[in-house]
Amino acid sequence: MIVAGAIVGAVYLFNWWQEYRYRKNTQRAFARNQPDVLMDTPKNMVRGGERFEPALDEPTRFEPPATPGATIVPPEPIEPQLTPQFAAEPVPAAPPAPRPRDEDDRDALAESLLDPALDFIAEVHARDNIPAGDVPRFPAPKRVQAIGLTEHDHWEQVGGGSNASYSELRVALQLADRQGALTGEQLNAFCMAVQQFADAHDAVATFPQRAAKLAAARDLDEFCASVDVLIGLNIASSGRPFPLERVRLLAENAGLSRAADGTFVYKSESGKTLFAVSNQDQAGLGPTSDGLTLLFDVPRVAGGLAVFDYLSDFAQQLAGSLGGSLVDDNGRPLAAASLDNIRRQLARLYATMDDRGIAPGSVSALRLFA
Predict the structure, then answer these.
(1) What's the rounded Cα separation, in Å, for the pair 346 and 304?
(2) What is the DSSP string of 164-226?
(3) Which residues contact 116 (CB under 8 A, 6 or more apart)?
(4) What is the CA radius of gyration of the chain?
(5) 34 to each of 160, 218, 224, 367, how far by Cα in Å?
(6) For residue 269, with 0-12 CB atoms within 10 Å meaning exposed, 13-18 middle and 19 or more buried, which class applies?
(7) Which domains are assigned to the chain?
(8) DSSP 3-state assignment of 311?
(9) What is the pLDDT along the chain (370 residues), one digit of tens a residue?
(10) Strands, E assignment, 212-304
(11) Are 214 and 256 spatial neighbours (Cβ–Cβ below 8 Å)?
(12) pTM for the complete prediction?
């Protein structure tokens, strides 16, 4: 009896310790509010914190994932309905009114915020609808996004002061970004927070298989690291600093504008930055500059080859007009042949991204390379 009591006590203590440890992990992970990593992207930021030139001479190790086969679910058998020989014809039920198209679009937009290929998606099924104001932000080291199914059977993004209440919630934690892959500790803390929220609202929480998702996170991060390239074309002075007013005129004539941080940026019609011009030493631009750098964040730019062509032409024209030299990060001159070689490498890199189903400059790319 004493031995049996000791075993029961040991099991109880072990379970208590596990719960205590996970609660501490949750508190550490959620100790402060996290910014939206998609919107607040540090400048000149790639994996490893360094800028490097593309090196794609080795064959890619990553193959596009095979398309999973569709599972066909047989329809349930329909029982025959017997009616008397002289019974009146049954009146068919009126078909349901079609949903307005804008409602379908709104639902599709909300559901597009979550992607099973990029996210770990937890589901919360409520017995009694949960008011939007009761749903926390679930802060975490990576992007978290939540959508809810309203009492009117519409999906919407949770947040923004909605007055809706939800019968179902989907809460997604991103698997990877430029800070690396999701870790087991981070995932456990997230799951515990969702479970505690569900328990507090008498709801049922369900989760994907954690080990498989952690493996997918590592694979996704390895792929992203292989294509995470930030190209820098430098214009070095020949001993005479470049006057900023001259740089400004040349930049504006080429379609660039001055950003709030003092750099010059070239933007798409939708307002996305395609490339930027800054001081070569990353200091703020003053009255003069000893060297300029044109930065091109490869995976975050759609139509990258055309943008690189414009960037190359502008860099050569800027260097000629300022009397400087176009060089790489190691100070070696960049001739037309060198730029053509970089362009070929870019074409191969973009093909690799397309094969993976992550188009450069797409929402998926902006999320992963943030």
Answers:
(1) 8
(2) -EEEEEEEEEESEETTEEPPHHHHHHHHHHHHHHHHHTTEEEE---HHHHHHHHHHHHHHHHH
(3) none
(4) 28
(5) 17, 22, 22, 15
(6) exposed
(7) 22-44+102-223 (3.30.1400), 229-368 (3.30.1400.10)
(8) helix
(9) 554 454 445 544 545 544 444 444 434 433 333 333 333 344 455 675 455 454 444 433 333 334 333 333 333 433 333 333 333 344 455 555 555 556 667 778 888 899 999 999 999 999 999 999 999 999 899 999 999 999 999 999 998 788 899 999 999 999 999 999 999 999 999 999 999 999 999 999 999 999 999 999 999 999 999 999 999 999 999 889 999 999 999 999 999 999 988 899 999 998 999 999 999 887 778 888 989 999 999 999 999 999 999 999 999 999 999 999 999 888 889 999 999 999 999 999 999 999 999 999 999 999 999 9
(10) 230-236, 242-243, 257-258, 264-267, 273-279, 288-289, 291-297
(11) no
(12) 0.71
**Alpha-carbon span 82 to 76, nearest angstrom:** 19
Tokens of 370: 């943030």
Cβ-contact 47, 298 below 8 angstroms: no
* C-alpha–C-alpha distance, residues 293 and 306, integer Å: 19
Tokens read off for 262: 């003092």
d(C-alpha 227, C-alpha 348), whole Å: 10
- CA 305 and chain centroid, separation: 22
